[in-house]
Amino acid sequence: MELRRHQSFLDLPSTDWNRLVADADPFLDHAFLCALERHGCLGEATGWHPLPLTVVDDDGQLVGACPLFIKTNSYGEFVFDWAWAEAYARQGLRYYPKLVSAIPFTPATGQRLLVDDALDKHTEIRRLLAEGIVELTRETGCSSAHVLFPDERELPALRSAGMSHRVGCQFHWHNRAYRDFEDFLDALSAKKRKNLRQERRRVHEAGIELECIDGTAITAAQWAQFHTFYCDTFDRRGGVPTLTLDFFRAVGSALGARVHLVLAHAEGTTVAAALSYSSRHTLYGRHWGCAAHFDSLHFEACYYQGMELCMRNGLTRFEPGAQGEHKVPRGFVPTLTHSTHWIAHTGFRHAIDDFLERETPAVARYAEELSTHLPYRHSTSAT
């Protein structure tokens, strides 16, 4: 088998790449990655430079792959290492560029060492990819390598390659085969059940109507309206909207029924929108924007509509995005996420390992403590 590096996702065969993607993960779909590259979301402006790795067998068949990037900043990663970069700078050292395996601007857990588990040599291929990331870090002179939000099954290969393990915390909702939203509410304590009903009622009493449409039916005008909301959200927070309108249109067309847009209408005008994606088993909430504030509309469009979509489509898990302790009383369970890191500088590697040794139990305690505030009648703990 041979490890190869590439300068673009566009050069890789889509059918062979997608054959390695498990669970129809929308963010790992070749079309999603190519849309990022083709429509102005990668490159100098955003600091994400494609450098995908592949493994081919003796017959030249693609049997492994890794979505890899050279990064010149830490934006759009959701695993925060700004303090590490500042420590490097204080010592007169260069932290950027670095290597990152992740989905740009997307804090969703998924494969980072793509391989078909049906292959006899799937363990060896994962090991080859993990070791290849570290070796490429050395060859390119990058300060470090970071694998963000990998599937837990990939951790042994990444740790064996010498990478340090870091944990984070998100909040995920689990569909316990609920028949409908009322069935879900029945699983909550009386007080929490009342609170959620009140939030939904406020939206209804404000005269707001909601519709959920998938990528096969989203019109050009609806994409344009959504993108306006998306950009306004960043503008209000002083951020930069990195995903272009052409990107969203391309992904909607390519992924079709795996793209979901919730639109909120008041008096004939669209006042808010929330975008999510789905795999075979998981819904991923991604972007939200609104024209004005409406009480509880964010919870309705971003959370409760997503829960109902999971129930309708038989999806078992809902990842609504990074951070947000306010999700806990609405039924989202504190869930540990993972990343792995290889630091070229020996001194900093030891210092970061020491930091992670202290951070890991603190994150675990944080997740467990938040679990005591879950709204369910029966105990549910952090996962």
From TrEMBL:
Among InterPro entries, the record links this protein to: Acyl_CoA_acyltransferase, FemAB-like
Q: Which PANTHER family match?
A: ACYL-COA
Q: What is this protein called?
A: Uncharacterized protein
